Each structure stands twice: as C-alpha cells, then as structure tokens.
Records
---
Amino acid sequence: MNVAIIAPPYPLEEAPSPPLGVTYVAAAFESAGTKVRIIDYIVSRYTEEKLKHELEQLSPRIVGATSVTMNFPIAASILETAKKLEPSAITVMGGPHVSFDAVNTLKRHPGIDMIVIGEGEDTIIDVVRTIESDGPWSSVRGIAYRDGDRIVMTEPRELIENLDRLPLPARHLLPLSRYQALGFPVSIITSRGCPNACIFCLGRRMVGKKVRHRDPSLVVDEIAHLLSFGFSRINIADDLFTANKKKVRDVCREIGRRGLTFSWSAFSRVNTVDVETLELMRDAGCDAVSFGIESGNPDMLKRIRKGITLDQARNAVALCKKVGILAHASFMVGLPGETTHTLQETGDFAESLDIEYGFHFLAPFPGTTVREKIDAFDLEILTDEWDRYDANSAIVRTSALSADEINEFVAFYEKAGKEAWERSVQGYYAGTNTPLENMSTEGQLRTQIVFRILSEDLVEECGRISPSEEMKAADALSLKIAGRTGCDQDLVTKTIKSFIEKGQIKKGSLEGSCRWYWTHNKRVDRLA
C-alpha cells in the first residue's frame, strides 16, 4: 500500500522545525508495512499542479494530513483537492484541531473521509490493516468517519503507555536540506503528557495529564541520530521538559557520557527548576529555557489555572541568570477578565525581569477549557476563521477591553523593537553599525531571503543555467533570484554560496543544461 502524507503550508515567520508530528505519523505507516512519501509544503510552495504530479507518481491508497488550528483551512483544502485528483484514495486527517472538532470537520469537508483522534500511531496501524483487509471501519478505535448522513465516532483509544516502543520519527522522508537552509532547530520529545490544567492549553486533553517518559538512553540515541544528519541545534518540545528532575538529570548525564556537543533549548515552568537541574542542563549544552508566565497579575494566574506565582517566576529567572542560561518569558494577552490594569501589570512585570520576552494573543482553540466553557468567563470569541488563530492578533474581547485595545497594547511594546530594527538596517547600509550589529542584521536579512527562496521555489524556478553561464553558475543563480525578489544582490549571493558550501544545493545536468537542485532529492528530474 502506498501512502502520501501532506505537511501543509505553515508560516516560515513562525520558525517551524522539521515537523515532528508528521514524521511520527510517517514512521507509524512505515512500521505498518506501507510505502510512504511526505509531501512537504512547509518549505516549498504549494500548487495543485505539484500535488497532482506527486499523487500521479505514487498512486496512494491513503492520503493523510495533519494540522493545527491556524493552518487547518489550507490543510483541509489540500486534502479535498487530493480527493478530487485521486477519488479512490482514502483521505485522513489528524492533529489537535480535528481531534476536538471532528464532527464539524466531516460535516463541512466532504473530501475528508476519516479523522484520527488524539495520539495516532497505534490507530494508524489498525487503519492500515482494516483498509488492506477491507474490514469495517467501526472496528478501529479512535477515529471518526461518515456512514451515509451519519457521523460515527468509534470507541476512544487509550494513550500509548510505553513511548519507547514507537519507531523514531521518519525524518529521512523530509527535505532536510531545505530545513537546514532555514536554520531553525530540529525538535524532539523526551516525554508526552502535561500535569497542568491551564484553561487555554490543549496539552492535557491531547496527550493526557500523566507524563509518560522515554528512556533517556533512547532519547540520546535520537539526538546522536539528528547530529549525524548535520543538525547542531535541538529544541526539546515537551510540554514540560522539567516535569521529572530525575529524567532531566539522566538525559543530561547520558549526553555528557557520550561526549555529544550541541546546543539545545527546552520549555519549562517556573516552579519546576532549581540550581542543580539548570547546571546539569547547561553542562549538557542547554543555553536557553522558555517559561510560559502568561500574566503579571496574580488573580489572573489563578483564573487561568496556571498554578504558579510571580515570586516563582522571579526566582526561576534569577536561577537561569546565575547559571548562565538564557531565560525567555512568554506572556498571553486577552485572557478572561483582562482589563487595562491587568495588561499594564503584565507589561510592567515582563520588563522587570530584564530578560527577553514576548506577547501572544489568546487563541481559544477547539478542545480548550476556555472555549468549551466560555460562558463561565468574561470573554467573547469574535471569530471562527481558523487561519486567524495564530496568536498574532486579538480575536477575543472582554467586558473591559475591545480587540483593538488589546492589539494596541502589544503594538506599543513592539514599536521599540520595530524602530530598532529599522535603525539597524539603515546603519547596515550606511556603514554606521558596529561589527556585532552588522552580523546580527545581516543574519536576519539573509533569513528573509531564505524565506523567499523556499516559499517561492526559487532554486527550482531560477536553477536552470545555460552553457554560457555554467562557469559562474552560482553567480547566475544569485542574479536570477535577486532579480525575481528585488533583494540585495550581495546578500543573495552570500546566501546561495552558503547553501553550496554546506552541501544543501548542488548542480547537475538536466536536458542538456546545468540545473541547481536541493540535495535531499535523489533524482534531479524530480524538480523539473
């Protein structure tokens, strides 16, 4: 059986890692004995023509996709297009959004045949066996599907108790050179589950309140595997990496025992760190920890069931500074009962920590307490346009604050950063920056160029080089991309030459001409 798994478009500005959920799903399909291809539209442009070409090559029996709320609309649209292109294929969607909005998804999107609810690895194996044997879908736990005009939700599937029996994510199926060109960390998990009950989060609902840990030795095996791919920075994407200090110590000591050298970051809570734990993390290569503090108002922290205090936040930040780990704080605005006063308290508290911090807007995702029990809160949800659920603008209001007022608060704090960036760019081109400022500015400008190159398929579009240009093929490619994008020629050239030096793109022969291509592709003509 052939299976196509679609990684739907996701804003590159949101710093996506190579998609972890997609690769766990792909690994599950592989373990079920299927031939799997990941069609990645995160780091390449989506067009219906490209999708048609991929599906014609594979003739898949199953076409799957995953999504979060913000990219659900495009994911659903692509899956419905796949159904039109391959009517005999069974279209399947999973992920946190559809797990908690399965009925509406099936009612509104007739091109989607099946929803996988919650953790999908075991469900996928049963789905494959059932389809291969032409058995009844009703026998598969943890799915939703149509039966005529009726929506059927089968018996829920229990969570996977032993995570160590899962195969490693099938990252070999991803266009890894594109992700490496993007330059963001690659993610892993050391556990699943979240013991906390924050009203805005899906963690507890999606992966359970009991934290299930992977064997530290297997975690470090995976880290070594990632380093062999050429990645040098890793993000531990657990909901709460420091939930169990013994696990943290064991992972860190195993990294040290093997002599692995890399940098990494993790998500934590301010009430779960201490000096010893942070020192072990630092010595194992951790250089940054992100804390979700959410509010500077004590009553708000209780209202959202955060389970922390401001003193704990101050202490955690102080400990990070003491041991030399960068602390980052995340705050949420537009929470239930938000007022001008609570927002100002949050802003003042964020500044008082003297660390990097950022604001995110509350997005009441399907499945969250705040959405399902909205009548219990001083909050009004203003839209169900799912692509607006990106936490980058207000989509709620309270009795005291409009969405515009919430937006204005964040804009005030972001204004200084935007002005500083504009000054830095001006200084870069005027030659008035310090060398350090120039290095930082050039890095960000080149990242913007990489976004354009990936999202517009510019290596593919501009990569054909005539025989007369072959001696200066890199310059020819750079010139074409600069002309297409309007970006600075020197910066485009530096970016392209960096791709070449790192082996991310190469040139080969195609139809009598030189052609640049991404090295993850085994055959140049895949990009023709």
---
Amino acid sequence: MNFLENIFQRLAQDPGRVVLREVRGASFTTASAGELLSSIGAARAFLRSRRLKPGDRCALLAHNSIRWVAMDLAILAEGLIAVPLYARQAPAELAGMMKDCSPALLCCGDAALRDAIASAWPGAPPGVTFDEIFSAGRVEAGDSPAHPLQDAYPVAIIYTSGTSGEPKGVILKVGNLNHMVPCTLGRLDLLMGDPGHTDRIFHYLPFCFAGSWILMLTALSRASVLTLSTDLTQLADEIQASQPDYFLNVPALLERIRGGVEDQLQKRGGMALGLYRRAKQAWARGQSASFADHIWLALASSVVFSAVRSKLGPNLRALICGSAPLAVETQEFFRMIGIPVLQVYGLTETTAICTMDDPRRVEPGRVGPAIAGVEMKLAESGEILVRGPSIFPGYWNRPEQTASVLQDGWFLTGDQGEVDERGNWRIIGRVKNLLILNSGHNIAPEPLEDKLLHSLPGAQQVMLVGNGKSYLAALVTGKVTREAVAAALEKLNADLPHYRRVHAFQVLEEPVTIENGLLTANGKLKRDAIAARFRGDIESLYAAKQA
C-alpha cells in the first residue's frame, strides 16, 4: 500500500473523525474524514469533466485551507501531477514557473488569484476557482485512488526558492513519499509516545513548500487534527485557540517570539527582568550550575517562563523547526523555558528531509542524525552529499542541471556541514554563498549574518558582501540606527580573526521583500538580486574605505 492509498483507507475507516480545522479567531471550521472524502470526490468529478490525462500537470494556487487539501489529494488520486504554487508570490514569477511546466489546468483559491495570473500571462492555462470546482457532483470512486501509482510515478513538481537564479521544478515521485512519510511518522511516534493519542497540530506554513506538504500528508496518515491558520497577523491568538501538541516553524518566528519576550521584560524591568537575567546566567552554566542556580531557574519557571508557555498552549510538547539553521541562543532559550525545539534539515530535492532530531537526544546547534535509509557524507570541499530513496529523480525539463547535482548516485546539496561522532549534523552555510576575499580567505556569511541580526532588535535582514574585496561589509534592513549597527559590529568583531571582521555597513532604506523580488517565497535572501539592486551602495562602502 502506498502513502496515498493509506491516507484514503484511514479516512474511509473512521468517517466521523475530525481531521482538519480552519481557525478564525476563537472559532473553527471543521472537516471530518468523511467530509474531506466528499470534497475530494467533488474535485475529482470536476477534474474528470476536463478530460485530463494521467501525467498532466495541474497547478494549485491558493492559501492553505481544507479545500486546498482536498484539491491536492484529488489531483494525486486522478494520476495527475500537482504543481503547488505560493499565493503571495509575484504573478510574473508564478507565470514563469507555469510556462516552464505547462499545466493543463490552473486551480485557484479565488478569482483575484486567477485574474492576477491572467493579467501577467495572457496565454495562461484555463483558470478555475475553488467555488467552481467544489460545486461539481461527487465521483462515486472518491474513496480510493483511480490509478495504481508505482514508485517511479511522478506526483508533484515543487519549485525551489531560486536564491541565486531561476526557480527549478523539483520532481517528486511516489517512491519518495512512500519512504518519507513513514520516516516522519516514526519521529512523531517518539515525540508523542502514546499510540492512542490524537495529535493536535497547528500549521501556518504554506503547503506549497515541501516540508509543509510532508507534514500535511503525515498528519493525514496518523490520528491527528490539523488546524490551519487563516490570518498570519493573528498567529498568537490562533496558537492559543488551537492548543497544539507541536507545530512546524521557520527560525524567523521563533526568533520573533524570543525577541518579543526579552523586549517586554526589558520594558517591564523590576523583579521579572532581574529574575530572568539570573535564570539565564544559571542556565548558561549548564552542568556546573550550583544549588542557588537551580533555585533561580525554578523561580523563573513559575513566575516568568510559565507565562510564555501558556501563550503557546498547555499541551505543547515540542516546536519543530526547519528551512534554515536556528540560532543556538534561540534553541537554548526555548529549552530553558521548558519547550524543546526539534530541528529538521533537508531540501526540496531530498523530499524535504535528510535529518531530524531524535526527541530523546537533542543537541542544540545541530539538526540531528540522518533519517532511516538515508546516507550522508562530506565531500573534500565540505559540501554535504546525500543518497537514498528520498532523493528526487531530477528537475523538470532541465537534464543538464539535474546531471550537475546527481553524481554517482549522490545528490550534491550545495550546503556546507559537519558531523560529530554521534552522527549529529550541523549546517554551516551554502557553498555557493562563500565569500572569497582577495586575501584568499573563504568565509561562510550565514553564521556572521545570524549573529549580527540577533544583536540588532528591529533589523529585518543582514547580508554580508565582499567577494573579491579586501574586507567584509554588511547591508542591513529594518528599523535600526547607524549607531546601533556600529555598536553591534564592534561587539561582533571583538571575538573574530581579522579576515572575518566586518569593516563597513549600509542601512538600506528600501525593504527587502518577497513582493519586490529580493526574497524567495520562503523568506531567503536572493543574494544576486540584492547585490544587483544595491550595487551603488556596495561600491560606495569600498570606495569610502579606499579614499
């Protein structure tokens, strides 16, 4: 039985069980297993009315919702290839992806999304809204996939972020999902312990991202209630209302939570701030902590930390974090307040996951051991290489780029890493992001960028430059003063060798956003685009020093 057949079987076995919820304020819109199957059937009836052939691409452009899940499962069940797209991305970029994969149909969450694509691309495929799709009659065979899906059969094309170039369509096949879903189920079994427990999961990350999609498929493959965010501006309220056992995060949200807590304590001052500082010092001493340190930690837990935990819900067992390395200080902050953070590392090309923290043995700053069936090693350059059943078969219509990253059975991740004697991996940065000074020193920018960003409340992004130059410089965005940046750099540089010090900076007035094409869909820096946009600012940093 493949991953999709298993999901359909579970839904059919217990049709009255609630499996999905959309949270709106303090209220919920729910879907039982039977109702989800009915919605899937309506979507399948519509797809059949369009006489699509197995293997046709079907683009899916919508915000997360119960209907998104039903549409996705209907596409897979009909033997079509799903192409999930990010609803917040610029229409011109979305049009470029669709021109690449030539979908036979574009399924949109609403008319505004459909019309935006039609304006950006007059030759776009037929666009239909969810209202049109789900008003169709239910297909009788809606309780099982229509076509037997063999391991080699492609089920999705997910476009990569495109941090330094044009996004590429990553093909994922049935065999990739057949391996990955059981792996994630196994890790969640370790976290939850009780096999009879129904997982309560909160989810705010778009399903068009591979890791987010895997979580959705995994949730439907076990006893879970998956609650979907509908308003990112109300995340705190939605989390409280959902009372999750766990949820998937990007580092930015966890950094924001930590920063918000520390800012509030700083403003309040008094006993709470003093207690927090004492507890933080005690925690930093680790195993050498004294009896008095344990007293301070216990007091802080009952007076300060309990308030933070209550906002994240009384059931929270762990936070799961992926997409980028999480600052060790932030992971330690959550451990200190009693909430473990489990890190995940992977790429779309590895079906989202290569490593996952074992809940029983979490080592801060590392992303856990390789998952079952996956081999990882370091090339001489320090690049991480991966092979196993979760590795994608190739990029859509890009044989040369496929050949450049799949060599002798190994996938070249482009990431720098290191592994300890226990098999726990740490991610250092991207190989292609290395800055090579004219002195010959190679510098991974990400660790320095993270440290500087965390020391600058109000900053949005930090990007280092200096390739081919004699020293590093920084571009900073957000609500920060030059004085604050200068002070943060002085502190950062004090502990660095001369070649890793940052000697100049510019605070940019223009924001760096997804909408202006300078961030990827999942919030990563488009370094080449940023360097091109702010070429004048960068050149002035070096001209000023040379003058």
---
Amino acid sequence: MFGLFGNHEKEIERAKSKLIYDLQHNGIKNLLINMDRHETYSPFIDQRRSKGSYDSEDHISMIAYRVSTTLSDPNYKQELLQLLNDSEFDAYRKYIFWCLASLCSNTNDYELFDFLLEQIEIERDESIIVAVLSRLDKIVKPKDKDISVIKKYLVEGTADTQRAAIKALSNSKHEEVEDLLLNEFKIADRHVKGMICTPLFSVATTKAIPILQTAYKQTRDPFLRHQIECVLDEINKRTNSTANIGLLPWLRGPEASGYAAFHKISYAAPPGTFTKFDPDSYRERHGSKPWTLPAISNPHALTFLFYHIRNDKAF
C-alpha cells in the first residue's frame, strides 16, 4: 500500500515537471490560458484528494501562476500589450496584467511601470488592480516616479486594494511613504499591522522605532512580534541604531534570553527587576541589581526563535 502511494507521488511529480516545462516553453498565450484552468494535472491527485490529502499546487492554475511570477523575457512585453486589445483574450485580462506586472518587476522596466499605474488609476475591475499592485513590490520606486495612485489605494482603497497597495509600497524611495505607512499602522488591526511591516522593512527609518516598540509591547501575537523584530533589525543594519534593545525590557524569561542570543546582543535588565533568567541553567534566578545577559549559544535559548518560526504564516 505504501509502495503504491509512493509510486503515485512519483507520477504526480513527473506530471508537475512536464506541466512546468510546457508552461515555460510553449508561449505566453498558453501560459495565460492555463492560468484559468482549475482542474488538477494528474488523475493521481484526484485519488489523493478523495482521501483528504490536499496540496496548494494541486491545480494547473496554481502552477501557471507560479511560473508567471518568473517571467523575465522582454520579448513578452509587446505580445502581452497587444493581447490587451485582442477580443479573444478579453476573459484573460486579469492574467495579462498580472504577467505584465511580473515582467515589470523582474526586468526593472520603468516604462511598463508607468503604463501599469496609469491603467489601474482608471481600471474598474478590482481584481486587476489587486493583480498589478501585488506584483510591484520588488521593483524600486525612485523619487522621480509618480506613485500617487498606489498611495491613493493605500488610504482610500477597499480592503483588498489597500492590502495590495501596502505590498506595492515596498522599496520606495519617497520619504512620505514611511509616514503614510506608519499612520495606517497606528489604526490597523494586528493582521494589517503585520502586513505593513513588510514595506516598512525596506522604507522605515529611526522615526518608526517608538511606534513599533509600542505596538510590540501591546501585542501578544507571535506573527506581529516577529514582523516588528525583523523591521527593527533592518533599521539597525541601515542606521547602526540599537532599536531592538528597547524591546528587551518587555520580554521575560526564555523570551529575553532567546531574543538576545539570536540577535547577538546583550540584555541589561532594567533597575528594580527582580526576576532574571539564567540561560546557563535555564532557570529563573532572583536579585535586586541589573545584570547582563550575554549572547549565548545554549540551544534552549533559541526557544523564542523556534516559537516564531512555528507560528509564522504568509499573507
């Protein structure tokens, strides 16, 4: 029984490899059509799913989407633009824009970048707006590029367009973007706060530190805490600040030791702190004087890090 299941998995992998090769080598029209195919690519997947076993890439469309994110051939640009005016591909407009935005990010094509922003400013189909914005996170936005439409969707958009705009503001060189993101961060729920940390990772300066520290102190959500830590670490690297040390007085016990060990810093407990954590014995100890927690290699101290990895999730 186990051997039969193993053989089926090998067949599924062969079918996936064949599909990926087909999507990569049989033209952009073929890729677009397959982005709209929601059936599975192997009968063995249907058998597996009937027994309650699912995978995020069971369907042809998901594999096609994954391939589309890697588009980097500039020759596809004109063909895709022409397909926008082809009535036979009207049903595929969302996929065409998705592919254009992927191509834009992967090739740093600023002419295409300007075109896409002009299009989503007048576009009525929200799914197309989201498709474009969600693929523009990697491309750097220089100060001389007009990104007002992205900022508009951040402030005035629906929940979906706002979240896509949050992602699209990554790697922006516009100074006002940080303020816009921090203003939204202050009023957002914990899930959106975590999302805003993604562009803050590339645009935040030291002005973001107190806002992030306050949010860290107020939340127990492991994902949001992890996101905030990543942003503060990146600010440290860019500015040689010590933002993370400001977090440590709020951590207790193994959280403090794990954090200090992972980030290779020392933790000076605030005056009047009586409960301390001894990383060598992995026990609490008591005293009235501040003490320093060295950056240790004790595997127990990495509990905090592993806890975050276990609870991490994509958005």
---
Amino acid sequence: MRKTNHDGNLTMRAFAGTHVVLLGWSMTKLKSRRVLGFAVHRTDHTEGEAFWLKGIKVFEETDPGTAQASLRSHPVQGFTWSDFTAKPGHEYTYRVVALKGQPSDLHEEDAIDITISTEVEDNGAHEVWFNRGAAASQEYARRFENKPPDTPDIAKAAHEWLSRGLFEAMLAFISHAVDSNFSLRVAAYQFSYLPVLEALKAAKNRGADVRIIHDARDPDVAAANNAAITAVQIKNICTERTAQPSAIAHNKFIVLLKNGAPQSVWTGSTNFTEGGIFGHSNVGHVSNNAALASLYHDYWELLRQDPVSAVLRPEVGQLTPTPNSGDEPPAGTMALFSPRSGLKLLDWYAERAAAAETMLCMTFAFGINKAFVPVFAMPFDGLRYGLLDNDGTTAAMQQTVASLRRKSFNRFAVGSRIRVNSFDKWLQERASGLNRHVPYVHTKYMLVDPLGTDPVVISGSANFSDASTSNNDENMLVIRGDTTVTDIYLGEFFRLWNHYAFREFAVANADNPHVRPQFLVPNDSWRDPYFGNTARSRQRQVFAGVAS
C-alpha cells in the first residue's frame, strides 16, 4: 500500500510492504532552516501501541550511552526513514515532526502524518516470502550472542528468525498435495535440505504424484543432491539433469497440480538448501495463476526429457518467446524461461532497466553484467540503486563498479559485515557460515519505477548474465502494474540496501579517526547535501515525490 499527504510546509509519502514501511518527506531549504532533524512517531492500531521510533545516531552532547535512542531526542538527519519493525497486515499511523532548538532542548515545529496498512505475504494472486537474509546483523548478534545458527541451544529459534516465514511457506506449498488428486513437479538446482526432501516424500506417501528433476551437471552440487536423495530414499521419483555439462540446471520451482491441471507455482531465487533458505538473501514467490502454472508445467516436461541445449533452446523460445526490442511487458504477469538462442532476452532486460524514469533497483549476486554497465553509465534524472554481493571478481569489474559509483545518479551497496567494534555501541557480526560462494545477496530481481503507478518487477532464478540466458535452465517472472507486489519487493530491497550500505562504509572507515558516524550534527548544516545536484537531494525528491 502507498499513500501521499501534504500538510503545511511538509510533503510525505509512505510505501508499505509486509515487514517494511518506507517513508519519504520534504521541506524546502528555506523552510527547513534551523531544523536539527525529524522525529518519527508510530501508532500501531492493530496492537494498540504508540511510541517514538528509535535510531542509532545520537547527539554527542546528550548521548544516552545506549545501543538505540528515541528519535524524539536524537532525530533523523535526513528526509527518509525505513521502519524495519513493521508487521504484516497491521494498520499504522506515522507522524513526522521537525525539531528545532538545541540538542539539549528540542521543540516540535511542523508535523505531518499518514495512516497506512502493511501488506500480507499471501494476497490471493501472489505470495511473496523474503527470508531475513542478514545473519550478519546487530539484531542477530544481540538475540543469539553471535553463535553459529546450528549451535544446539539456539538452532530452532535462530532458524525461525532467519527464515522469517520463507521455510514455513515452502513446506505449506508442498503440503497442499494432500492426496492422490494432487501432483507436484519440482525443478531444482541445489536440492539437499533434508526437511524439504522429507516433505516431498510425505506428499508422495499421502498418494500425491511427486516427480523431481535436479541438477547433476555440477559435480559438487550433484554429490550433495544425491547424498540427500539417498538419505531420504526418494531416488525413485528423481531424475538427474545431466545433458550439456557446460551448463547448470539452475531452476528452483515447484508446480502444484490437481486432477492433472496445474494450479499454482512456487518459484524465486531460493535453492532447496539450508543456506538458501536461512543464509543469504532470497525470495520465494508463489503465483496462483493457473495459466502461468501450466506454462511452468510445460517447461518442466521439456526439461524432464533431459535434452541438450541445442534441442532445448528453440523449444523454450517457442514456449516463451523473446520480446522484441522496444516491446514493453504486458500488464499482469508473464514468464520467461532459459536457455534460449542468443542474448536478446538479456538485452531486453537491459532495455527495461534503461526505460526507468525515476528509479531503478537491481540486485546482482555475481557482479554487474556488461549489458547493464551502459544503463548505469547513462545520465539519469532519478536514482539507480544496485545491491551487490561483491563488487566483482576481477580488477576490471571492480574498476567499472568504482567508476559507476562516482556518478551522482547511482547508489551502490555491497555485502559486508562489522568485523570489529570499530564504532561505539556496535557489536561484532558474523556471517551465517551456511553459504560458500555467495554470503550476502543471492536474489535476482529488478524494480523499474517502483514508486510510480505502473511499476515493473522482474524476479526469478536468472542472474542477469550471459550464462543464465543462453546456457542454464532458468525462469523469471515479469510483473507489470501490481503495486502490492512491488511494495513488498521495494521494502525488502531497501531493508538490505540500507543494511549493507552502512556496513560497507563502516569497514572502509574502520581505521579513520576522523569518521564518527554514531554522532549527529548539532546544527542545521546536515541539510546541505540534501539540496542541489547530489544523490541525497535526488533521494529526497524521488521518495517524497517533489520536483525540487
């Protein structure tokens, strides 16, 4: 849900996903003179709570010495705020108040409020489930004393916290196959988390027709998959994808059928592994569109025959044709599968990214593909955000990312963690240890103009790469015009973008005695970067929906 309000000197917009509410507001530079920051008050009408939200930056003069402090005493020195403590299906009123005076004597001036409801993960047409995706966090360190997630005394609670409903939703989807009227068709890359395999076996034991295709072309993946399959004793319902050793069977989807008719599909970026579900960031996305599920089922039937790429590509291209250059996606939801001949689909994704008018958000698990470098290099009146697991595996890619970062319309965040107590009040963080190659960001999605009335979400298993287009088995959803789905993805994108942007900054400045990010500026000079041709000024304008 999204809302806008204008009140006196303030303009404000709110975007509510499931677990995140994004707020953006604006005042003119003249009207915001002597403002030391903004306090944010939240009323939860669902649970009957009301309080000032808390932040981590404080005035040095009035530092309470605690890990978090009330925004009424230590305000936001900016024009956006993200509430990461929101809950699905709740009604909230957010009140933003400008504070003037001195750090020791702040008084309230202009104020504005918005009442908004958060989304639920399952809205009927779509279900969108994001895991926590941030074991390396202050909250994890506080809750679980920074112990590994599999430590016996915290394992159950830690896994539930890290899952944040993703694992439970995956099992619930499988559990819909209650008897012999139902079938499940699984296409998997990494397929080794025993509770998932056991759930599929239980569905089989209930009489459901369960068939599984899994990757056996990557030797390490094949070994782990086969060990799990043998342990659970489901080899009789599994088929190895061995053809074309130079590629991988990278899908992660399940089709649910009733009486032979496809009903819905579970897809997204989540491998069926402990690391995929509980470790790095991932999404599980359910479409309850029967026609779309049927398309996935037809794709599964193609893969089941284990064809080589030369045979599979034209079949996939016929099943989901590559859009022509310049074609916009149709309203609603469509699917695009790989492998297919050439890189025209990748170029089309790049065209969609370049078509953004005010904002582009993209995740990159394995660096920025060359097709998207010109997109991020192109002058832009809005903002482009990139969330990367790393800044590239080669010196050339690292230089490219560094060059793109210097442009005022680009903002990047790269996965990182707080390794030492470099700044006051911060606890040392640890990675989950559940993932070998991609510790932080594993999602693969793009948001085109997510704050507008006609947004586009592209999400699935493909890494926006050459290999994911022409070689690997992949699937992507393209969703246009659905602001409910967009708001969920938008909130989750900025939850992790903000999380890693600060950690990357903290690591880079750990030994700099002149950097003190825990303290607020005791006057109104903090406003200077928020006006003029700067990234922060663009951020204020884009999120608040103002022209200048």
